[in-house]
Predict the structure of Geranylgeranyl pyrophosphate synthase.
Amino acid sequence: MDKSNLKLYVDEYLKQYFLNKGSYNKLIYESMGYSINVGGKRIRPILMLLTYGIYKEDLENILPMAASIEMIHTYSLIHDDLPAMDNDDLRRGKPTNHKVFGDAIAVLAGDGLLNEAMNVMLEFTLNSNCIEAIKATKIISNAAGVEGMVGGQVVDILAEGKDIDMDTLRYMHEKKTGALIKASILAGAVLAKAPEADMRILEEYGEKLGLAFQIKDDILDVIGDEKKLGKKVNVDCEHDKNNYISFYGLDKCKEMCSLLTEDCIKLLDSLSMNCIDLKHLTKILLNREN
Amino acid sequence: MDKSNLKLYVDEYLKQYFLNKGSYNKLIYESMGYSINVGGKRIRPILMLLTYGIYKEDLENILPMAASIEMIHTYSLIHDDLPAMDNDDLRRGKPTNHKVFGDAIAVLAGDGLLNEAMNVMLEFTLNSNCIEAIKATKIISNAAGVEGMVGGQVVDILAEGKDIDMDTLRYMHEKKTGALIKASILAGAVLAKAPEADMRILEEYGEKLGLAFQIKDDILDVIGDEKKLGKKVNVDCEHDKNNYISFYGLDKCKEMCSLLTEDCIKLLDSLSMNCIDLKHLTKILLNREN
C-alpha cells in the first residue's frame, strides 16, 4: 500500500463493501453506503493504518479494522444530524441521511453501521484468532460507547444553552471526538504489537492529537469557508453550544492548537521507530481547511 | 444457579450493571437502566442460559453474554418506539424511553446499549480468551445487524401500509424477531461446545421457536389483554401493518403456533442430551399471555 495515499484504499474498501448487497433489506445498504461514500477525510482509518505502519509493512491486512472505525464515525454523524439531535440538513455539502432516506431509515442506518463495524471487527478477530485483534476491537468498542463518544454526545446535548465549566467542556470534547481518534491510534499500535513503552507514548500522542483536532474544528466553525467545509459555519454559536472559542477566544485557541501539535511531534520523535508519515499527517491536521 | 428461576439472576445482573455509574454522562446510564429495568421476560438470556445448561453446569459463567443479548433487545425497543419509528408512548405499561428522557437521549441510550452489549461480550471474550467466545459474540452481532434484526426492521417500515407477499412477511419476521432468538440458542450452544450434530438440531429449533414466538405475538396483538401485555393491542391493524393474522386469520395462526411448538419439542427430544428445562420453557412461550 502506498502510504502517501491511504485514503484511496479506505475509500475503495468502503465503496465496495456496501455495493450490491441485500435483498428485501437492500435500502439499508443504500442508506449506509450513501453516508459512508458522501466524502470524509478518513482521518481515523488513516491514523490506524499509519500507526500500524510504524511497526509493520502489511497495512492491507488491517484494512477491515480501519474501515470499521470509519463506519462507527459515520453512524455517529447520521444520528447526530437527526431532527431529534442537531437537526442538520447538510453534511459534507450533501443532504444528510435522513433528508434523503427519511428519519426511520436514518436511525436504522446508524444502528446498522455501528453493528456492521462490530461484525467486520469480529470477522477479522475470528480469522486472525489472536489476542491483539480482540484487544483492538475492544479498544474501539469502548471508545465508541457511553464512556467514550456516546458519553461525549450526551454531555454535548445536556450542555446546550447552558454555561458549563472548563472540566465539563474538556470531558465533552475528549469523549465526543478525542476517544475515537485515540482509539484509532492505540488499536493500530496493538495490532502491530508495538512495544509497551511506545504504547504509552502513542496514548499521550492520541490524547493531544484528539484535543488539537477538536480545537481546530471549533476554529474552523468560526473562520472556516462553508464551501470547503461542506457545512454551515457558526453553527455552535447559533445552537448556543459551548466550545473552546467561547472559553478562550480565537487567538488563544490557535496558539493552543499549534502548541499541542508541537507536543505531538515531540512525542512521535521519542518513539523507538521512525514515523515520518504520522508526523506529516499530524502537521496536515493542524493546517487543514476542512 | 437455580434453573427454574433464571429471570431473577438476569434481572439482578442488569439492575446492578447500570447502577451508580458515570460522571458527567450519568444521565445515559439512568436512561439505559430505565428501559432495561422496566420489565421484560428476559426470554433471550434465559434461552441462552438453558441451552448452555444442557451441556454445562456453570451457567453463571456466561451470565454477561446472556445479559448482553437483553441489552441489544432493549436498544431495539427504545429505537423502535421513537417518534421517527413507531411513535409509541407505552412499553410494558410504562412510558417509553423518549417520553421520559426526550428523543435525543433516547437515540443515544439505544446506541449506548448496543455498544455496551458489545463491550460486555468483548470483555467476556478477552477474559475467557477462547475461540468459542469470539464465535458466540459474532453470532449475536450478526443476528442483531442489517442481515438480522435491523434488516427486519427496515422491511417492516417499508411494508407499512402496503400489500406484501408471504415471502416478504416471512423474511421480515425471521429477521426482526427470529434472528436474535435463534442467536441466543446458538450462542449458548457454541459457548458450551455442543456437538456438531446437536448444533444443527438447535439451529432448526431456534428457527421454529422464533417463528412460533412471532406468530404468538401477532395473536396477542389481536386477542391479548392490554393490562397483561402492558401495551396497546390491535396496534398492527391500526398502523396498517402486515402480520401473520392478516395473512392466515386467527384460527390458522393458533394452529400454526401449536404445530411449531410440537416440532420444537420433537427437535429437543432428538438431542444427545436431556433438556427438560428448555422443553418446559418452549411450552410456556406457546401459552404465554404477554
